[in-house]
């Protein structure tokens, strides 16, 4: 914390004169102005709002003044745009980042200071250095331990072959179950810096059980709400799909390997005369090969992200209206987010964080 009235009277008058001098360099006058406002009791955020700069910059100016007075403010401690680390130090820093994967730029700045005795006072300066070294701040992907690249490739090849030879009297759907919880999901958003933003919590943690399927060609969906997801809900879904396509001779339905999808009750139902549904199973641990998983993500972005529904009834209506009505009606907009653009994920291509 920067305490008010930290300046000597002589220094205060010197800075005031500089801030009021119309002939002084604009940047230096602004920096002097910032120090005066800090001395008067404003915090860094408040000074930043007045001068239309970020608070990190204000802290940097204060630190430079503390260390070097007016001369420090005039130089800002930089030498042009030249990196303050030499080539050897940059190589060491890059090796350390590659090895440890620090989560914040603050950790990086602290390591540089401890290792080399060089202080980067502004977060933006550390970030610029990281970008110069070819580093990015990213979120790790979640990769299953038991992913089999060969099975994924075989599945994609078989799917492409099916689609290339699909008859006019056939349809292809992808099915799955989802259990959205009645709660708002907080996600980042843009807004005024001086406005605090919050979402209202819901009163419970009730969830829905939805067993559904989607046709990627038309956006048509079959979505059933169930008390529980099991073999009986699977059979109800199969019945609904057949009713949805009375004109189709054969309906291909891709599912994951959940036990209720492979149950003896389902197999028995499929063996009935006149059944027009053929099941295909996606390789285990491969949700990325089931496009309906992308539909569930799209549903959350539209229904639960930064949105609160007062009651479970309101929540259920919003979810079901979205997947039953909005998606088919707006399929030309949604189809890019829910596609069969499959890829093979090989754990060997990733550095796994342990």
Secondary-structure blueprint:
Blueprint: H1 9-20, H2 26-39, H3 44-51, H4 55-75, H5 87-100, H6 105-116, H7 123-132, H8 149-164, E1 170-178, E2 210-214, E3 221-225, H9 231-244, E4 250-255, H10 264-270, E5 277-281, H11 292-303, H12 312-329, H13 331-334
Parallel strand pairs: 1-4, 4-5
Antiparallel strand pairs: 1-2, 2-3
Helix pairs in contact: 1-2, 2-3, 2-4, 3-4, 6-7, 9-10, 11-12
Offer a quick outline of the entry:
The chain has 354 residues and is an alpha/beta fold.
Describe the structure.
The protein is an alpha/beta fold and 354 residues long. It folds into 3 domains: 9-75; 87-132; 149-349, Nucleotidyltransferase, domain 5 (2-Layer Sandwich), CATH 3.30.420. It is 46% helix and 8% strand. The chain has helices at 9-20, 26-39, 44-51, 55-75, 87-100, 105-116, 123-132, 149-164, 231-244, 264-270, 292-303, 312-329, 331-334; strands at 170-178, 210-214, 221-225, 250-255, 277-281. Helix 2 (26-39) runs antiparallel to helix 3 (44-51), helix 2 packs across helix 4 and helix 3 crosses helix 4 (55-75). It is elongated. Residues 77-81 have low confidence and may be disordered.
